[in-house]
Specification:
This protein is an alpha+beta fold. 42% of the residues lie in helices and 22% in strands. A six-stranded mixed β-sheet has the order 14-15-13-18-19-20, sandwiched between helices. A four-stranded antiparallel β-sheet has the order 4-5-3-6, sandwiched between helices.
């Protein structure tokens, strides 16, 4: 390499290459590659070393270079290096040669390698220029490097990438619930990920090499810390001083430090509300999904909205026609989801006492109105004191179920009883009720329909099944109905303590 060449350099999409005369790439390199295309395969090995890796590392690199038999072109640019290899006639061994080169370099330079990537190239069969094919090969090698991290900070990014890649398998294992979509974790898809110390140029290379990728998650040690969308990056780099100002800076300097990060167990509907409430500039940013604060993937706004549409269609199909609440299929799915989450929760079964008497005496139409009234009591109280993660289902007839947090479950029971008792007399048409008929036709002194609630508290990591929940609730229901008036009875699973309450 002569002195004149070293003085003249050009930048092609951020890649520093020597310039001789005209043309985007070094004409000698293009000529050398075209000649070797006639005799066999050509491959590129890209290596990024740590900044300031030291003289001993550079010497080891030079020694390694001298031992490469198939190497015909090399270019080192600061901490980056590009090595071109050739195959032999009638042999398809270039890929094996590149793998061998990686293995031989990794041993003496492992602590100084940030990332390595490879790509194969061949002449175009569609008329594309040699320059275009070579440039594409460079981008493919850079993209390959992103998918093959090595150690240190880059190793953390690699671990994250590995987690993201298995995200689709993990979500099926952990979140599948008979085809019903409730938790956002089901939508977690693999998504590009970089360390916060990665350079802006690395992310730009990745975006340029894959037009379908719209963003990158920034994560350290598997924990997401930011997000960089392609559109934002292009806007920054397109400015007058964009390239010189940002190109070699750490991506943490320009990332969105407050992306929407949600736990995999959060309901899709709740995530949708959070996503659509964001500032307009972030409206179409992906939603980052974690499990125990570790990255498992991301969901696009499109996938979330499509899921919402599917959920509403399915909910309408399986909902109870009288109340519009989820039926048994949705109830079973919700219970399965709660059990898998291994977190404490509460199940409240609601049942009307003397509903048969009311139906027989006041008519089926009034009976339907009373069922709707109970459904509204449950809805209103959960809206006032619950969260978006709470669930109400209609088992059938006058039986309902509510799944909620254990922290405020007892308060909910007391408030629902108070609200129900406060409004039930309107259904008697002004008549004073002093006695009712039980299920056997016997007259008993009661003031009308009352509400029995069975409250089951499931502690964290309790060994549960839907059948156990059903049997426990049935037992509690029997105890509640044995008492006079509107009451709730409570039992805790996975604790020796059992509690009972009455309003």
């Amino acid at each position: 390499m002569n002195h004149t060449r070293m003085k003249r350099q050009a930048i092609i999409e951020g890649i520093h290459v020597e310039k001789i005369g005209s043309g985007l790439l070094n004409r000698d390199l293009i000529r050398a590659i075209k000649e070797r295309w006639q005799r066999g395969d050509v491959g590129l090995l890209y290596v990024q070393l740590r900044d300031g890796c030291g003289a001993s590392a550079i010497e080891a690199l030079r020694q390694w270079e001298s031992e490469q038999e198939r190497l015909f072109w090399k270019q080192r640019l600061d901490s980056e290096a590009f090595y071109w290899y050739h195959g032999k006639p009638k042999e398809d061994l270039t890929e094996k040669v590149l793998k061998a080169a990686i293995q031989s370099m990794a041993a003496p330079l492992k602590k100084n390698i940030v990332r390595m990537g490879t790509a194969l190239t061949a002449p175009s069969i569609s008329g594309r220029s040699s320059q275009a094919m070579i440039y594409r090969t460079i981008l493919e090698a850079l993209n390959s490097a992103w998918n093959a991290e090595w150690n240190g900070e880059a190793a953390a990014a690699r671990d994250v990438a590995a987690v993201v890649q298995i995200g689709s398998e993990a979500k099926e294992r952990v979140y599948s619930n008979d085809g019903q979509l409730y938790a956002i974790g089901q939508l977690a898809a693999p998504f590009p990920c970089f360390s916060s110390k990665a350079r802006v140029s690395e992310v730009a290379y990745m975006f340029d090499s894959n037009s379908k990728i719209q963003g990158a998650i920034i994560a350290d040690a598997g924990r997401p810390v930011g997000l960089l969308m392609k559109e934002k990056l292009h806007q920054l780099l397109a400015g007058q001083f964009g390239l010189p100002l940002y190109w070699n800076r750490a991506v943490e300097k320009i990332m969105d430090e407050q992306p929407l990060i949600v736990d995999a167990d959060m309901p899709v509907e709740q995530v949708s509300q959070l996503a659509m409430a964001r500032d307009f500039s972030q409206l179409y940013d992906v939603v980052i999904i974690t499990k125990e604060e570790q990255l498992i993937g991301a969901a696009t706004i499109r996938s979330i909205l499509e899921c919402m549409t599917a959920m509403r269609t399915e909910a309408a199909r399986t909902a109870n026609p009288l109340t519009g609440l989820p039926g048994n299929e949705g109830i079973q799915s919700e219970l399965q989801r709660r059990i898998r989450a291994k977190e404490a929760f509460a199940v409240i079964y609601a049942d009307l006492d003397y509903f048969k008497w009311f139906n027989d005496y006041f008519g089926f139409s009034q009976g339907d109105d009373l069922i709707r009234y109970l459904a509204n009591v449950l809805r209103e109280e959960i809206a006032l004191r619950g969260t978006a993660n709470d669930f109400i289902g209609h088992i059938g007839g006058d039986d309902f179920i509510m799944v909620t947090k254990r922290d405020y479950a007892e308060q909910l029971c007391r408030q629902m009883i108070a609200k129900f008792d406060g409004g039930i007399k309107q259904f008697y048409g002004g008549a004073e009720v002093t006695s009712v008929e039980d299920r056997h036709g016997n007259l008993v002194k009661r003031e009308g329909v009352t509400l029995s609630l069975s409250l089951m508290i499931a502690e964290q990591d309790a060994e549960l099944t839907p059948d156990l929940i059903s049997r426990t609730s049935a037992k509690l229901k029997k105890r509640a109905k044995a008492q006079i008036g509107s009451v709730y009875v409570m039992e805790t699973i996975a604790e020796s303590h059992h509690g009972e309450g009455r309003v």
